[in-house]
Design a protein that fits this description.
Number of helices of chain A: 17
Structural class of chain A: alpha/beta
CATH topology of the largest domain in chain B: Rossmann fold
Distance between the termini of chain B: 97 Å
Number of domains of chain A: 3
Strand order of the largest sheet of chain A: 5-4-3-2-1-6
Strand content of chain A: 15-25%
Strand order of the largest sheet of chain B: 1-7-6-5-2-3-4
CATH architecture of the largest domain in chain B: 3-Layer(aba) Sandwich
Structural class of chain B: alpha/beta
Largest sheet of chain A: 6 strands, mixed
Number of domains of chain B: 3
Oligomer: heterodimer
Number of helices of chain B: 20
Helix content of chain A: 40-55%
Number of strands of chain A: 11
Strand content of chain B: 15-25%
Chain lengths: 451, 563
């Protein structure tokens, strides 16, 4: 077993924020209440199995601060439940270690007797901090979190994204999180090593653990549409690259270290948001090619944003329909990758590329983007982002085109009533985009961008 | 003298109808306002006052309850047909109703069984009227008027409290019973399939199908009707879904703890009856707004209430754009009603304002072939197909799903009597496209494929399409589920340059919709849309189609991107 990432909260406020975001997202927003959260969370990897049948596993070490008492049991048990049982939670099966700050008192109080009995009966993985301290200290990436709410949010989200399973939402969470961290990094918030560490951890997990898991299950479960939605050509290519245990650990840690060194440099070199996103994406794919020895791979985390969405904004630069400095209303149909980072990068990209100020934002989302909607709202509230708090979210359906058309049409008329021109960006399912495009017809104040 | 009359008639039991008549005469002389002021001095309340009452042949309770209202408040009165007609002793209460009509909201239901209507029917009629009142916001019902069937119905419907009015000799007293009535029923949905939102576009079955989901004042209650002995095993599934507390109707093998009987808090008859009231709206929403319906169900049952509220607000805002009287309008109104009911159930503090739900589907919507012809044109000369990409290393012929895709294209062509097909391919799906091409040729179609240049060279694409003879024709571009928007745009532009008249159709992969086959308890299902029977049955509001004029306009509006 090798540790990759440690998130260490240095205040109670940070513990609550990191733990709260992690539990909310990892549970698919079925749990949003506050529980006594760990001060340190460390993620480690192992490879278990028989012969060539090697199943990559994750281990989560939840280390609690001294004096936090019985409440810690609830947090650990909630994570165990959503990880092992809850079918609607995105979190993958993970071995959850409850790490006590120090030796327990004699098991004489009824509550302690009950918990101690449960640990022994169920053979729960537990440890004292001093027993695992050296091991946890070997984590390649360490993220200290104090009272910076943006960093706390990004850290909690990264833990939830990395522990999400290999499924469409699991990959989407990694992308949403990657975009948010990249945005913070590019805005110069990455003065510490925390943000590059989070992005490096995400990338290492996405390019190594995720394809390996897909490869493991491919023969027995992945067929047809599920196969396509999970793997895609690139993940499939990567899934065959690693089978040997040592190669797995070696590549994981090597990629994480390489990115950790390179990403801050790349971010510092970027001219602007668009250029920065492209550079980060290119740096990641280059490092992946080297670490895994594959010739060709599309960058999965920032790919849509860096290579399709933001470059498409350049086309707006010379569009005479919009005047420089003009305020516009933005209507977007959500892709599963849409999140706070993508929206922030998009809005700033529109300003940078075309000098347009986005005054109001409307997002049409389908059930497939449910978590994106909740997550963006959470970020806006936690970090006090007024623009994102003001986003109007509307539900539509790819297989309900007439409903989608009417909602989109209604929104476009509202934007017109606000006295604004509308910029429509069609992302996501083609059926939604087609209805959105139809809604634009006959309206003079609208322009459409299909990245 | 007048004081004696009030004491004898208002504050004491009396069957002396002439005295009651005399008292009513006195009330008329005083006028409504003064009469109520006088009554107020002789009314006592122990507990809460009623905001609705059942009125029999004693008008005193009506006057007493009215005297407790605030100036502009109205009292809901349920009374019998005899009172409304003023038959026999009913004439007394009729006089009181007429006197205070501006302060009353009168509902009529039978109170007593008759040779024509047995006790069950009377009970059912009472429940119907009472349910409407509860839905409209009434919480406390006075049951001192009417037969013994009145309190039975009231308890079943779910008033928060019941009062009983009695004369003490010095006053008329409203006494609130300390009982635990059944929860108020806001809404009933039958056969609700719970789809995981991120699997909505995969051909995945529901994680759970609940026989009923009931919005009540006690919360949202999922209900399972026991149809076979082994159904207890569904409890295992429920435990994997965050321990959803399902309630059970019927006899279940007592194999596990936590199998709670729904009969203790819900009346099975009532569920069926309430469902009938909303069935048409629900079916419309499961067809025309299927994804939003699925999201609403999932959010209400599986998200924390705090987050469920957020999603319900979004759905309500979206459905605010649909006020039409067609199927979509009916579906959207039904969803708003559902949002209201679920929100109230999730948080009893919010106000519940019932949204009316239309009971009939007024529109006879067009079906697939008719819609396409109407929007794109009678004669479609070429079908330009963007096939869905499936990443497969093995032979495409072994793939069930790729074969279904070929069949779907074939079906569309047959329905539209379109003999020519051009498949738009790219390097990633060349093998699949070739397989589909061969299969379509076997079906007798004239098929060609065009591989989009890797660098997206528009001129080269124009030349390729021209070479295939796609110039100056009536074209329908069919996107099978999803495709790169850039590529679609590139092709639409190339077709436009070649003076073709092109419409655009998107045929999604799967959809949840009401079952065609009515057998079984489940009323909706996830269906594959790439089959002849499902394509043929698609309604106009289920298929995104852009007319050629709309495609042309889109190309103009898209001048900023994709060049």
């Amino acid at each position: 077993m090798r540790p990759l990432l440690s998130v260490v909260s240095t205040s109670s406020k940070a513990e609550d924020a990191v733990g709260g975001v992690f539990l909310s997202v990892a549970s698919g927003y079925s749990i949003t209440g506050r529980l006594t959260a760990p001060a340190e969370v460390t993620l480690a990897y192992s490879l278990e199995g028989i012969g060539r049948l090697r199943l990559p596993r994750k281990h989560l070490f939840l280390c609690y601060r001294k004096g936090k008492g019985k409440g810690t049991e609830h947090f650990t048990n909630a994570v165990r439940y959503i990880s092992l049982m809850c079918a609607t939670a995105p979190m993958a099966s993970t071995t959850v270690w409850h790490v006590f700050p120090g030796p327990l008192r004699e098991a004489s109080e009824p509550a302690i007797v009950r918990y101690a009995h449960d640990i022994v009966k169920k053979n729960r993985p537990t440890a004292f901090y001093d027993e695992v301290e050296d091991f946890l200290g070997q984590a390649v990436l360490r993220v200290p979190v104090s009272n910076d709410m943006e960093l706390a949010f990004a850290s909690g989200l990264t833990l939830a994204a990395i522990t999400a399973g290999a499924h469409r939402l699991g990959l989407a969470l990694r992308q949403i999180c990657g975009q948010l961290v990249a945005y913070a990094l590019l805005r110069g918030r990455g003065k510490s090593e925390a943000l590059p560490a989070l992005l490096s951890a995400l990338a290492a997990d996405t390019y190594i653990w995720y394809p390996l898991v897909c490869g493991f299950h491919k023969a027995r479960t992945l067929r047809g549409e599920l196969y396509a939605s999970l793997l895609g050509e690139d993940v499939e290519r990567l899934s065959g690259a690693l089978s040997d245990g040592e190669l797995f650990y070696g590549s994981l840690l090597c990629l994480a270290r390489g990115l950790m060194n390179e990403l801050p440099v790349v971010a510092a070199q970027s001219k602007d948001i668009i250029d920065g996103a492209i550079r980060l994406s290119n740096a990641m794919s280059s490092k992946v090619r080297t670490a895994l020895g594959v010739e060709q791979v599309r960058e999965l985390i920032l790919g849509l944003l860096a290579h399709r969405l933001l470059p498409a904004l350049e086309k707006l630069r010379d569009e005479p329909f919009f005047r420089g400095g003009e305020e516009v209303g933005l209507l977007i149909s959500a892709t599963e990758q849409l999140g706070p980072g993508l929206l922030k990068l998009l809005i700033e990209g529109i300003r940078e590329a075309c000098g347009l100020e986005v005054r109001s934002v409307y997002v049409l989302y389908t059930p497939a983007a449910l978590i994106n909607r909740l997550l963006t709202d959470d970020y806006a509230r936690a970090c006090g982002d007024e623009l994102l708090r003001g986003v109007r979210w509307l539900t539509v359906g790819a297989t309900n085109p007439e409903l989608t058309y009417r909602v989109a049409r209604g929104v476009l008329k509202e934007i017109e009533r606000e006295g604004l021109k509308a910029l429509v960006i069609g992302l996501g399912h083609m059926a939604v985009v087609a209805s959105l495009a139809r809604a634009c017809c006959g309206l003079e104040h609208v322009r459409v961008l299909l990245p | 003298m007048e004081g004696d009359l009030w004491l004898a008639v208002f504050c004491s039991y009396t069957k002396d109808y002439s005295a009651i008549e005399e008292w009513l005469d006195a009330l008329e002389t005083l006028g409504p306002e003064e009469a109520l002021r006088r009554a107020r001095q002789l009314v006592r309340v122990s507990g809460r006052r009623p905001d609705a009452l059942t009125l029999g042949f004693s008008p005193q309770v009506l006057v007493a309850a009215l005297s407790l209202l605030k100036p502009r408040e109205r009292l809901v009165v349920i009374t019998s047909p005899e009172v409304v007609k003023g038959v026999g002793p009913g004439r007394l209460s009729k006089r009181a109703i007429d006197m205070f009509s501006s302060r009353l909201n009168v509902k009529v239901a039978p109170f007593a069984p008759s040779p024509e209507h047995g006790p069950s029917e009377v009970l059912r009629a009472l429940r119907t009227v009472m349910a409407e009142i509860v839905e409209a916001g009434a919480r406390v019902l006075d049951v001192s008027g009417g037969t013994q069937l009145v309190p039975i119905a009231a308890l079943e419907v779910g008033f928060e409290a019941l009062t009983y009015a009695y004369p003490s000799g010095e006053a008329l007293v409203f006494y609130e019973f300390k009982i635990s009535p059944r929860p108020s029923l806001y809404h009933v949905e039958r056969s609700v399939s719970i789809y995981q939102p991120d699997l909505i576009y995969n051909y995945a079955d529901a994680s759970r199908e609940l026989d009923y989901v009931v919005a009540t004042s006690a919360g949202i209650i999922p209900v399972e009707e026991v149809s076979e002995k082994e159904e207890w095993s569904k409890r295992i599934k429920d435990m994997r879904l965050w321990g959803l507390p399902v309630f059970w109707l019927g006899r279940l093998e007592k194999t596990l703890p936590g199998l709670t009987c729904a009969g203790a808090i819900l009346v099975p008859d009532e569920l069926g009856r309430r469902w009938e009231q909303v069935e048409r709206g629900s079916i419309a929403s499961r067809r025309a707004a299927s994804e939003v319906f699925a999201l609403l169900s999932f959010a209400s049952l599986f998200l924390s209430p705090e987050k469920a509220h957020v999603i319900l607000d979004d759905i309500e805002a979206s459905c605010g754009y649909g006020e039409d009287e067609d199927t979509i309008g009916i579906a959207m109104r039904h969803l708003r009603r559902l949002c209201d009911a679920y929100r109230k159930s999730l948080d009893w503090r919010s106000s519940y304002q019932s949204v009316s739900s239309s009971s009939s589907l007024s529109e006879k919507a067009e079906r697939f072939a008719e819609v396409v012809r109407k929007r794109v044109g009678e004669a479609i000369e070429v079908l330009v197909v963007f096939p869905k990409i499936f990443w497969r290393r093995g032979p495409p012929g072994e793939s069930w799903i790729i074969k279904r895709q070929a069949d779907a294209i074939s079906v569309i062509c047959k329905m539209l009597e379109c003999p020519r097909i051009v498949l738009i391919s790219n390097r990633s799906i060349e093998r699949q496209t070739r397989f589909i091409e061969e299969r379509l040729k076997e079906h007798g179609f004239n098929v060609a494929s065009v591989v989009i240049p890797q660098d997206g060279d528009a001129e080269e694409l124009v030349a390729l399409l021209k070479k295939k003879g796609v110039e100056g024709l009536s074209v329908l571009c069919a996107v099978v589920d999803d495709y790169s928007k850039n590529m679609i745009l590139l092709v639409l532009r190339a077709l436009s340059k070649l003076k073709n008249r092109s419409g655009l159709l998107v045929l999604p992969f799967v959809k949840s919709r009401p079952k065609q086959d009515k057998a079984g308890a489940r009323i909706d299902e996830m269906v594959l849309l790439w089959r002849e029977d499902t394509i043929r049955e698609l309604y106009s509001y289920e298929i995104p189609i852009l007319r050629p004029e709309e495609v042309e306009e889109l190309i103009t509006k898209l001048s900023v991107a994709g060049e």
